[in-house]
Amino acid sequence: MIKLPVSANNRAAWTIFRQNKGAMIGAVILIIILILAIIGPWISPYDPARQFTNKILIPPIWSPAGDFNFFLGTDDLGRDILSRLLHGARLSLQLTFTVVLIAALSGILIGAGAAFLNQTLRSLLMRIMDLLLSFPSLLLAIAIVAIIGPGLPNAIYAVVIVLIPQFVRITQSSISDELNNDYVMAARLDGASSLRLLSHHVWPNITPALTVQLTFSFSTALLDIAALGFLGLGAQPPMAEWGTMLSESRAFIQFAPWTMTLPGLAIFLTVLSINLVGDGIRDALDPRLNR
Amino acid sequence: MPNLFTAKNLTKSYRVSNNPLKKSQLEVLHGVSFSLNPGQTLAVVGESGSGKSTLARILVGAETPDSGQLFFEGKNILSKKHKFEWFKNIRLIFQDASASLNPRITIHQSLEEPLKNGTDYNATQRSDRIAEVLEMVGLRPEYAKRYPHTFSGGQRQRIGIARALLLRPKVIVADEPVSSLDVSVQAQIINLLLDLQDRLDLAYVFISHDLGLVQHFSDKVLVLNNGTQEEYGPVSDVFSQPKSKYTLELLDASAGYKKPE
């Protein structure tokens, strides 16, 4: 039996990724959003908290009542929505990156440790992880925030705690799978220590699975942080956070729909593009799906 | 003078049930003994599940026997003191070369591992040794830069042999090294092994179920049946006058084997 690993070189994976139209569209949108998030504070026309008290609920410029000074209109307090969205992009993406980074690092470390624990301890740890995984991620995050109290830092802790078990499980199970392979025994017989075995021999084989998990965690984290903001459990007003913006403008959806549609669209586009890219990466890296 | 490599009364059993209350043990090896001199080949034959592969894994240190002794040049290599000598001198050729090569690292990276742990070579010396060994097994040194999936089955088994040779071992344990290859490639690999044995004075423990091959290849033969040593002796004696019924059945069932007249 001959196993053909696609990503023995990453160039092959890139070729597959490039042929995937959805993934490429997602990648382009995601790159634009990232650039906007990075340069947002410099290009945004106004301070996101500044209130133009005589310019309340002005619609975007494509509407006849639009005002050229406020490209995407203003909200109920006379704040420029474009400025708030740009600042919100930076805030949301920064939070998402931080959350995923912390969750991934701790999850991978715990998972790698678990793979080398003895049977009993590993079972115990993994059952705890299963317990956490059995809740829908948002529900668990809400429960955690309910216990430790609302606020942005607590929402971040909650999302981190929700994401960790996914990384633990995928790391532990991929390492355990790999350890059964002959090449691991070969490396052991070549004198490799457990640590070296993990870092030089097993690690390159589990990075595809972890990469896929990483991209999907981004969309989960973004969505959960926004949802907590929307429920008033995460970022608090007047912070320009997309979820918080959504909930603040909920009351005006009937006569000022843009106040709610625009932040919603921002969340939707970001999550969609991350998922498209994630799908593309998964297809490109998983030999089983494209052979 | 002591033999190069001796095994005495090796036994091994596995726990079959995961239930801690039930202690059912499956004995896979029961009192296996042999001895081997430089340049000699010992063939281990038996049907599937007879414990051949377990024996191979014990001989190279991938598993520890429950009881019994292993001596290399008169030293008890099961003791911690001689672990390094064991690792350097007794090396394994895997049955499935493809599975034994890490798909995501280059041949060079795979072959470097034993040199890193078994020698004090620097990076250049390691590359030189890898090139030298690749040439010994009939591959080009620049192949080291490539990934395993770019090679054919026969080439991969040559890489497996190169990996076994890197540390200049004295004994090579080959666990059915040709059974996953097609016949024309099998002959090439067998000839390569014989050629290397001549040049390097290697002793082989050759695990096989192909009696025709064993007859052609080996000096001694050890017949395993359900983990028990049915017969052990020079190939010509065992094959012409089998003492046990099991050996006789094995010989009768084997197609490739030619009866000596």
Can you lay out the helices and strands and say which pair or pack?
The complex is a heterodimer of chains A (291) and B (261).
Chain A: H1 10-19, H2 21-43, H3 81-115, H4 119-133, H5 137-148, H6 152-179, H7 182-189, H8 194-230, H9 242-248, H10 258-285, H11 287-290
Chain B: E1 5-15, E2 25-36, E3 41-45, H1 52-60, E4 67-72, E5 75-76, H2 83-89, E6 90-93, H3 97-100, H4 107-118, H5 123-136, H6 153-165, E7 171-175, H7 183-200, E8 203-208, H8 211-217, E9 220-225, E10 228-234, H9 235-240, H10 245-253
Parallel strand pairs in B: 3-8, 3-9, 6-7, 7-8
Antiparallel strand pairs in B: 1-2, 1-4, 4-5, 9-10
Helix pairs in contact in B: 5-6, 6-7
Distance between the termini of chain B: 36 Å
Number of strands of chain A: 0
The largest sheet of chain A, given as strand count, sense and whether it forms a barrel, is:
none
Task: Specify the number of helices of chain B.
Answer: 10
Count of the separate structural domains of chain A: 1
Structural class, from secondary structure content of chain B?
alpha/beta
Q: Examine the coordinates and then state which fold CATH places here, giving the name of the CATH topology of chain B.
A: Rossmann fold
Name of the CATH architecture of chain A: Orthogonal Bundle
The poorly predicted ranges of chain A are 1-8
Quaternary status: heterodimer
Question: Helicity range of the residues of chain B?
Answer: 25-40%
Total domains of chain B: 1
CATH class of chain B: Alpha Beta
CATH superfamily of chain B: P-loop containing nucleotide triphosphate hydrolases
CATH superfamily of chain A: MetI-like
